[in-house]
Amino acid sequence: MSFFAFSDGTNVVPMVSACDYKRVNDGDQGPNTGGMGSYSRRSLIVRAAKTGHGNDHGPTIQAMAQEGRSYRGVLYGGLMVNKEKVKVLEFNARFGDPETQVILPRLKTDLVDIIMAVIKGKLNQIKIESTEEACVGVVMASGGYPGIIKREYR
Predict the structure, then answer these.
(1) Mean of the pLDDT values across residues 134-141?
(2) What pLDDT is stored for residue 19 in this prediction?
(3) How many CB atoms are closer than 10 A to CB 23?
(4) Domain boundaries, the chain
(5) What is the pTM of this model?
């Protein structure tokens, strides 16, 4: 599961979460890829909140500020969810792909307004809203992906 939040260096506002599919074939089979698609729905963020995750971003942002490394932008948390156990695998300073393709369409608040609030340190003064609707993204790849693809140039 991927859990995203905006940060202005002090305030942290979570976004909707998403899951991506890494394996190239159906049924979680085949080689690992950078992502063959993703989905985002309301129950994912509810599940993260119930397990106490989704709260990891705030302490992370606070710790960075205490070290003199104030962070403004998008913080991506990669979580491994197994029944009721959730582990944080990684943090990245970016939107994730293909997750962004299913998160941004759900965003009701103008992204430019959010970015300006992040830059100005006024994230607590903007209401960030998302739709309740689910969103799905599917990646179509050339045959042979993610292996070596031979190309002929003429």
Answers:
(1) 88
(2) 84
(3) 14
(4) 2-138
(5) 0.79
